[in-house]
Amino acid sequence: MAEDLLRRWLGKVVFCIGSELTLFMRGILPGRSLVMRVRRMRKRPSRAAGSPALTDYLARAAGEVRRVFCGPVTYASLVWEPVDWSRFDFVGVDHDRDSRAKDRYAGMLQPSLGTGKPMVVTEFGMRTYAGAADR
Length: 135
Description:
globular, 4 strands, 135 residues, 5 helices, alpha/beta
């Protein structure tokens, strides 16, 4: 279906193979639910840095997508997920802005800019009420 969209909207379709999989996909971090994985990660943040399961999955997924889709491919990563961007056409980073990170927001993106590839912030906010950026 994505290939059909690409033919119809040439140059305007990018296939994103996933989003924040360290948290949302079982098997990257221990835990049967998102809540359990987030709790464990908060207790030991180093647990998520360099997950071989994420690296292996992204390599397989990118390869399989490229077999059937000739357009650009990306992944919507968490800012701290270690991703081998050589497999992708765009660096994709979900990076919400809130009061805790407002003074270092742009700096947190610096490691992702060194790939030589275009970068897109694939998520930059999620709360829609007044004052959300301060909470």
